[in-house]
Amino acid sequence: MVLIERETQMERLRELVADCGAGRGNVLCVSGPVASGKTELLHFLGEYAASRGAAVLHATARCTEQGVVFGVLGQILRHQQFSPADRERALSLPDNHDLIPSCDADLLTHDPVPARVSQIQWQLLRALSERTPVVLIVDDLHFADTASLDTLIHVARLLRTSRILLVVAERDRVAGSSTAGLSWQTTLLRQRHFTRLRLRSLSPRGTAELLAQLTGPGQVTDAEAWFRLSGGNPLLLRALAEDRRECPGSEPSSSEPVVGEEFGRAVDACVRRAGRRMRDTARALAVLDASGSGERLAGLLGTTRESVDETLRALDACGVLDGGRFRHPAARAAVLAGMSGVERTVLHRATAAMLRHAREPASVVAVHLVAAGHDGEPWAYQVALEAAHEALRRDDTSFVEACLDVAGEACADEEQRVTVTLLRSVVDFRTDPDTACRRLRPLVTALREGRLTGCQTVALLGRLLWNGGNDEIALAMRRLERSSDTLASAAETDYRAARERLRASHPTLLARGAGSPAPHPHAGPGTGPAGLMAGALNQLLRAGPDETILRDAELTLQTTVLDDDSFDTLHLALSVLVYADRSDLAVDWCEALLSEAAGRDVPAWQALFAAVRAEIALRQGEARLAEHHSRRAMGLMSMRSWGVLIGSPVSSLMLAATATGTATDLGTPGTSALPEQMFQTRFGVQYLYARGRWRLAHNLLQAALDDLTRCGLLMREWDIDLPAFVPWRGDAAATLLRLGRTDEARRLAAEQLSMVPVSMPRARGMALRTAASVSDTRRRAPLLREAVDLLGVGGDRLELAHALADLSEVHSRAGQGGRARLVARQALDLAGEHGYAPLSDRLTTGTPGTAPVERKSDVRVLSGSEAQVATLAAAGLSNREIAEKLFVTVSTVEQHLTHTYRKLRVRGRADLPLALLELDRREGAGLPEPEDRLGRQRERRVRDRAQTAPGATGSGSPSSPRSVSAS
Fold first, then answer.
1. Assessment of whether the complete model's pTM goes beyond 0.85
2. Average pLDDT of span 827-844
């Protein structure tokens, strides 16, 4: 292999070999960073000198042989040119060696070799050089034993007029090097025949040349990336090339370096070969990582800043570091792996103590505390706990658990153990709330035994509200009621928020748990964001929406950061918007939260927000999307993990399946797998409504009525009877009508209509549709038209499609076939677009009382003029209006229509196929869409009613993108 960027040094070696043959002895020292190519240069020298007839005597000093007397010289004298007797004579020390005094003026080692022995060794070498030139090569001189080093110094002084060339190689020396090595350099610097060759790491250009040798010409086009990773260190470059060849996932055509095991081994080799000082510095830096600095390294190593800086520069030069930092995480990992477990623990423990003393953040100190483990430090608990909270905010749950392991070992009392257990349950909750609940069982036992403080009970209650047992929740409430006047301000805020949440979701538990809380003397009127949103939901369910609670909900969504404490608050804020008939406002917030939860990989949050997204989709008539999000929510967590909240996604799934006609694929929904306590919550009410509607769709009338009436009974009993939340009366009335109990149906329809203002367009439209179903024929059409207007504005496509179908039925029974089919066509379009299969079947098969929609006719038999006239006629224009629009006579219009009727085989304009309208859309005739005209009329009517309705109030907040008067 050709040496790269070493031409000058190679030429100098050739000159020295020539001088040696001519009787001019020299001493050459090759120095440079670790693994910079010194050994390869010595190999070149040996081969070249041998080719010129010289006797090459080679030795390599080893760190493990520094204590072996004449270890290096013994390798030199093993050459076949020396007899065993000469070798034994040259390497034998006198018996009185220890009594021979040293002389400082010689600048030798502290344990000098007797002059007689050195003289014998020199005579052997001199005698050999008289027969042939001699080239002595010693690699890694910095590891040489002192006896060999003294002999080499002695030889170096005497060889100037001989045919001996002495070449040694050593690494760059840094602070802390041995005095023996310094004596070698100081002694020889005075000699004129001493030469030094300094090697440096390869340049970017040299890196490219070496890579061409290693990988083949043209294989690497971006040598800069390889240079940045290796610093031009040839050993590291060879390791990277080997990793690239061995890595199964790397593309042969890729020129990017691949960092693998060989690179790590090469880095570790560089650090080990660099000597104790550089090795210890590299290891300390690897432990400190981002916290490393010159001052801290010096403190950790017990040395000076100047010494550390010099060592870091040496590590930079050999390519391990760049600017005092590891060039790649794999380099740091390799250095750490090269340490024993005990060495790492000692360094990490010392680092943790040093960083804590320097008042570094707990998250920084805890990294080393976790690596070392708890060893009785009195500050370990607080640091580990604070670091766990910080890591949880970063979603680094693995580090949270590691910190909690340390905190658990460092707990000094029961209160600290409770705190650690509660935080562990928070971490578990993210992926499996059921596991989190099981982890709390010891605390529930402590609650029953009265061993929890008021603050601990409040914290436990917050966890139990998700899937804890009703008995435990009630017990916690009773204990808190008795001690509420002793709670700290923050704990009382959490307690009041928990009460509001119970009232919104578990209304039966407050009566079992406690009465009204006693006011805390230092507590403000607020209950925090969680209490505010729970209170807003309570007010909404019991008194209906107003601008204040909608504004508070939006403000909460705007200002609250998603985390382990706030996710439930955000869920409540979304629920307020959804149940206030403002799904249009909730949808974007929900999508953003769902996306964030998925990006942060927190399954429990994803499931919760997916369930809300399913409810929103249902209220916007997107049944297939609702089914998707429901299944997604239920797939993210087990049934046990959902607890009582399982009623939300199950209800949405059943309602979506009912709308799309896929309910038969699910089987009859049962309650055996659902928690019994769910039916004591508002989620149970939602489930009863969904199951009742499903049973109604499957003609299980009495079972449907049982579910719907039980749903209504609970809602009235709990005072949450809001039609915008669960419109149970509408489906109960439909069931009663089919059972022939008309009077009861009318009573429910009247109740529902009286409870919903015009300012809630979706709920009002549904109530009007129900009212139309129990009204006489004369009043049905106006009620349904108003329902269609409101539902169009409210955004519920499913309810709008049903209202249009009902309106088509009214027109059909009134003998208005053309109008009936036009309205039915709109309903069918909605049903087809959104997958309402049962409604599509009803419209296309002509269920009794419903105007059937004919299949599309082939209108291509019409001429251009006939199609143009027929299209306008199908859109509802009179003959005169058509004539004026097309600038023809009325007679011409009549003739075209006569021809059209005959070709299409229809009796009149009322029977013209709606396919004409679709033809018009395809050809872009500019005719206004019938649905667009109806939509504009709806908006005007809704605005008029909203402005004139007695006591009507707006439902939108000032910041809302939509208000009642908008479409």
1. no
2. 89
